[in-house]
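Below is how a single chain appears once it has passed through the pipeline. First comes the sequence as given, then the structure the pipeline wrote out for it. We keep one example in the README because the format questions we get most often are answered faster by looking than by reading.
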Amino acid sequence: MSYDFYAFLDRMKYIKRWSLMRSVREENIMEHSQEVALIAHALAVINNKYCGGNADGGKCVLYAVYHECSEVVTGDLPTPIKYFNSSINGAYKDLEGLACDRLLTMLPEEMKEDIAEYVKPDTQSIEWKLVKAADRFSAYIKCLEEKRCGNTEFEKARKSIEEDLMGRKMPEVTKFFELFIGGYEKTLDELDTPLD
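Resulting structure:
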């Protein structure tokens, strides 16, 4: 018997983000998920090394890899619509849950439990909180990239996302800003790339 779970997830590369915004470069949810995984792992390391925490970096990465998988069923609903009011947001969360349940039916029984814990994560865990912050960082970095390319379309979003990140009052977020965000504002020639 053949199962369609991974074939469905492969379609993440066709789902565009920022559909209401004029972008210099299009972004899809597959590449976004990879970026979130990298940042979530960094936030887990920061949690452990600078904040005295014990976040599971591997769990952060897997939560991040799967965090947008429901969108292969639902599509990417633009943020202004998704958060227009609590009713719409609640209904969309329900729809995301149903989409995840549907995707999990596309796995062999023997694999379901092991994958379900990442497709439907523990939303109270430190790992999930770090992934949600990483998700916002990914959006923030997109705004910086667009600004660097001369596109002012993302400036309001950048300010809003920065306020959201800082409003989380997470020391990992503050440390990531301090250590890494400056690099995203540089050109390739300005990045420190020692070869010896």
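The chain has a mean pLDDT of 92.

See the next section for the split statistics.
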